[in-house]
Amino acid sequence: MKKIFFGLLILLNLSCSLDDSNPNLTAYVEVLPIESVTMPEYFQVGQTYQIDLTYIRPTSCYFFQDIFYDVEGNTSKIAILNSVITTDNCSILDEEVEASFNFTASETGVHVFKFLREDEPAVNTGTDGTYMTYEIEVVD
Predict the structure, then answer these.
(1) E strand or H helix at 132, and its extent?
(2) What is the spatial distance between Cα 85 and Cα 71, in angstroms, rounded to a whole number?
(3) Per CATH, which fold does 22-139 belong to?
(4) What domain of life is recorded for the organism (predicted)?
(5) Please, what is the end-to-end C-alpha distance for the chain in angstroms?
(6) CA nearest to 92, candidates 62, 54, 56, 58
(7) pTM for this one?
(8) Would you state the pLDDT for residue 25?
(9) DSSP string, 90-121
(10) Domain-by-domain residue ranges, the chain?
(11) pLDDT tens-place string over residues 9-31
C-alpha cells in the first residue's frame, strides 16, 4: 500500500509543473509611500502599541512584503516594501491597503516617527525625502 501511495505521489509531482509560458518573469522590491497613519497620543514605557498604516497598491502585481523600519536613537523611519512581479497581466487597482507594526517604548522622552510620503524612496539613499513626521511623548 505504501508503494502505491508513493508511486501516485511521484506521478502527481511529475504532472505538476510551473508555467513556462513566461520564462522572463522577474520580481523586484519597491518602496511605497504611506498615505495615512493611526498613532496614539502618547506611549507608556514598557507598553506595546500597534501602529496602523495605509498605502496604495497600484496594480495586481504588487504584493506586501514587509515594513521597512530603521531606528537611529529616538527617530524611526518607516516605509512599505512590496514585491512587484514583472508581467503584462497586471490590472490597475489603486486600492488602499492596511499594514501595521508593533512599537514598544523603552525610555521616556520624545520619539520621532518619519513615515515616507513620496514615491521617490529616500530611505536607502541617505537623503531625507518627504516624510509625515510624528513626535510622540513617551511617559513613565
Answers:
(1) strand 131-139
(2) 29
(3) Immunoglobulin-like (2.60.40)
(4) Bacteria
(5) 66
(6) 58
(7) 0.74
(8) 76
(9) --EEEEEEEEEEEEE--SSEEEEEEEE-SSS-
(10) 22-139
(11) 333 333 333 444 555 679 999 99
